[in-house]
Design a protein that fits this description.
Low-confidence stretches: none
Strand order of the largest sheet: 2-3-1-4
Number of domains: 1
Structural class: alpha+beta
Oligomer: single chain
Number of helices: 1
Shape: globular
Mean pLDDT: 87
Length: about 80
């Protein structure tokens, strides 16, 4: 039987996130980024924007945000992708 109650965001349960940073990180950074899928939007007038998307728990998310900070990459956005 599948539990159809709504899942709440918690510290220990993995959830899907999308993180955007300015600059270029290619797919070779995926292992470094906890296996997140990396895509780059190339904006001809501006810097490219890298999007990291995937499912991690809160501890992994915090670690990833610290690693991005240590690279000197400011955050454009961090979005929790609520699953239906």
């Amino acid at each position: 039987m599948i539990n159809k109650t709504k899942q709440k965001l918690t510290l220990d349960r993995p959830a899907a996130y999308q993180i955007k940073v300015p600059g270029l990180l290619d797919e070779r950074w995926s292992d470094w980024a906890d296996g997140m899928v990396i895509t780059v939007e190339d904006k001809s007038d501006d810097l490219p924007v890298t999007t990291l998307a995937g499912t991690v728990d809160q501890a992994a998310l915090q670690g990833l945000l610290r690693r991005l900070y240590s690279l000197g990459l400011p955050l454009v956005s961090v979005i929790w992708i609520k699953e239906d």
